[in-house]
Write a structure and sequence with these properties.
45% of the residues lie in helices and 12% in strands. By secondary structure, it is an alpha+beta fold. A hairpin with a 7-residue loop joins strand 1 and strand 2. The radius of gyration is 20 Å and the shape is globular.
Length: 344
């Protein structure tokens, strides 16, 4: 028996028994994910329709990528969903939430924090290999699953909009963070120049390259495959490399309240860049290679702005467990950004 309310319509659609064992897994805050023991092992996931309002676009993008990879890189492991009895990739419950089922990739694990140069290198190499293998695909076949997801200029506009709307009391409570956020707005100009000049080539990128979005072999510690492909869509290489730098170079996460614990681990950053370029070096243009140092700054700034904007609007987007959490996250990222701008 189970104590998790998996809808009957989902169980029936995927031929899963209610007597199976269902165990919540993963550290993400967007979807609900379960390990299913039903003679075979599966991963069952409920997609958050409130964040991904067009889940069918996710399915289509992944299907297009899978077809291309099978034809051109048949040995490459690209996780794909199992079809329901109806032949569909998504099954909708009574509340309109889509569910999907994956086979479990056994003898693999995820990690939440980078502790070595080897882990950093392998993760960056793994994410880069996905973009490299999809380098020849027609980007027009993909649609954005989240509009303007990593558009730094738009994120700064959102910050300014929420700043104008916020009460004086709320603004006073994050006065230092607001000042810091405005201090770095020159990065928006640099981003706009890169885009308008055509220096960056549009590619299919993962767009959410946290270390726990890649599976490692339990024994060899090598990267096995990339997971969490909801944001697989057209983008720029700086998005993927930048988010790797943002989330891996510090020994503490964006949730750390004590900013004195935030550090720039040069060896980890070097390993990330080396791992990424081990796959992408020969397909990046010279202009793109010159933009490598900008990547981490840009993505760290984006997240600082997003956390701060959400705090100003009343914490309506990111999951929080205490009222000041988005303020803490924004301060954390702004502190890291200052280090990056002084170091990289």
């Amino acid at each position: 028996m189970i104590d998790i309310a998996i809808p009957d319509i989902v169980l029936q659609a995927f031929n899963l028994s209610r007597e199976s064992k269902f165990k919540p897994i993963g550290s993400g805050h967007i979807h609900q994910t379960f390990l299913v023991d039903d003679a075979k092992l599966f991963v069952l996931q409920r997609v958050n329709k409130n964040i991904f309002t067009k889940p069918e676009v996710i399915a289509t993008n992944n299907r297009v990528a899978a077809k291309y990879l099978v034809a051109n890189f048949p040995e490459y492991l690209f996780p794909t969903t199992l079809l329901a009895k109806t032949g569909e990739e998504l099954v909708y419950d009574a509340d309109g939430f889509p569910w999907r089922l994956y086979p479990l990739i056994e003898n693999t694990q995820t990690i939440d924090f980078v502790t070595s140069e080897t882990e950093a290198y392998e993760a960056a190499k793994g994410f880069a290999k996905l973009s490299r293998n999809l380098d020849g695909i027609d980007c027009s076949l993909f649609k954005p699953t989240l509009e303007r997801f990593h558009d730094l200029a738009w994120r700064y506009e959102q910050f300014e909009t929420e700043l104008a709307r916020a009460s004086e009391a709320v603004k006073a409570s994050v006065e230092n963070e607001i000042i810091a956020a405005k201090k770095f707005n020159y990065l928006v100009d640099e981003y706009n120049q890169l885009i308008k000049s055509g220096s960056l080539k549009e590619r299919i990128t993962h767009n959410d390259t946290k270390i726990n979005n890649i599976l490692f072999d339990i024994e060899t510690k090598k990267a096995v495959c990339v997971i969490d492909l909801d944001t697989l869509m057209p983008g720029y290489f700086i998005y993927d490399l930048g988010d790797l730098v943002r989330t891996c170079v510090s020994p503490v996460s964006e949730e750390e309240k004590d900013v004195t614990k935030i550090e720039f681990r040069t060896s980890i950053c070097d390993a990330l860049v080396q791992g990424y370029l081990s796959e992408m070096q020969d397909i990046l243009t010279e202009a793109e290679r010159q933009a490598v140092p900008f990547a981490g700054k840009m993505m760290t700034y984006i997240m600082a702005l997003r956390f701060l904007a959400d705090f100003l609007r009343g914490n309506t987007y990111y999951h929080i467990t205490y009222p000041e959490q988005n303020k803490v996250r924004a301060r954390n990222q702004l502190y890291l950004l200052n280090i990056l701008c002084e170091t990289v």
